[in-house]
Design brief:
CATH class: Alpha Beta
Oligomer: single chain
Number of strands: 8
Largest sheet: 8 strands, parallel, barrel
Number of domains: 1
Radius of gyration: 17 Å
Bound molecules: 1,3-dihydroxyacetonephosphate
Distance between the termini: 24 Å
Structural class: alpha/beta
Number of helices: 12
């Protein structure tokens, strides 16, 4: 049985004082959650967020990192830097980074390996564009992104990787994939992992859905067989809306 992982991705939002207030407000709302609760915050919020979340069930993640451990890479942050302050998760290869910052399948793969080398749990994003979906190649795109991201990992590392299926056309648009479509995509990803790493490994991998997930649609998505959690953008900025998603199993439809 896979334990669900509900992760917020604040993107480039929230100043430290807002991060502290949000986490303080969120803490009592999610303390009984039976899923894993993660907030992936901007670098400048990490330290404040870690301190505020200390002693709670809220885990803190980063949204990116460099694949090298140190060196002349002005403006970058390394895996050891994240680990040293207590960060546990890191988002890798979000479509916004692939689109605006030239992330490729190759850099994604290097970063995933760096994450494991530093004991950070990667949340690897895959997802097709609207054109790719309309051209009927969505599953090909996402399974190939998955295969390349995981290349060279051992079974144990694959089992500890979180894949976030985020169709690009659903991000920040208010358009959510139907629960059937989202589940089918997650299933295809799992089948691909099973083909390469075996069924046992594939059954353990957490595969999240992301893209306009909110309290109104979280329950129906999260109840699907192959959707093991969510990566939430807009709805993770407010404690009450994020808490409702975390506590999806108490929402009565
Ligand atoms: P929204 O929930 O705002 O659509 O963003 C999804 C996302 O990109 C999370 O990584």
């Amino acid at each position: 049985m896979r334990r669900k992982v509900i992760a917020g991705n604040w993107k480039m939002n929230m100043l430290p004082n807002e991060a502290i207030s949000m986490i303080t407000e969120l803490t009592p709302l999610v303390k009984e959650a039976d899923c894993e609760v993660v907030l992936c915050v901007p670098f400048t919020d990490l330290f404040y967020s870690l301190l505020t979340a200390q002693g709670t069930n809220i885990k803190i993640g980063a949204q990116n990192m460099h694949f090298e451990s140190k060196g002349a890479y002005t403006g970058e942050v390394s895996g050891p830097m994240l680990k040293s302050i207590g960060v546990e998760y890191v988002i890798i290869g979000h479509s916004e980074r692939r689109q605006y910052f030239n992330e490729t399948d190759e850099t994604v793969n290097k970063k995933v390996k760096t994450a494991f080398a530093n004991n950070l749990r990667p949340i690897v994003c895959v997802g097709e564009s609207l054109e790719q979906r309309e051209a009927g190649i969505a599953f090909e795109v996402i399974t190939e992104q998955t295969e390349k991201a995981l290349e060279g990992l051992d079974e144990n590392q694959v089992q500890n990787t979180i894949i976030a299926y985020e169709p690009i056309w659903a991000i920040g648009t208010g358009k959510t994939a139907t629960k059937e479509d989202a589940n089918e995509a997650c299933k295809k990803i799992r089948e691909k992992i099973a083909k390469i790493y075996g069924q046992n490994t594939a059954e353990r991998v957490i595969i999240q859905y992301g893209g306009s997930m909110k309290s109104e649609n979280a329950k129906e998505l999260l109840e699907m067989s192959d959707i093991d959690g969510g990566l939430i953008g807009g709805a993770s900025l407010k404690a009450d809306s994020f808490a409702k998603i975390v506590n999806f199993n108490t929402i009565h439809s």
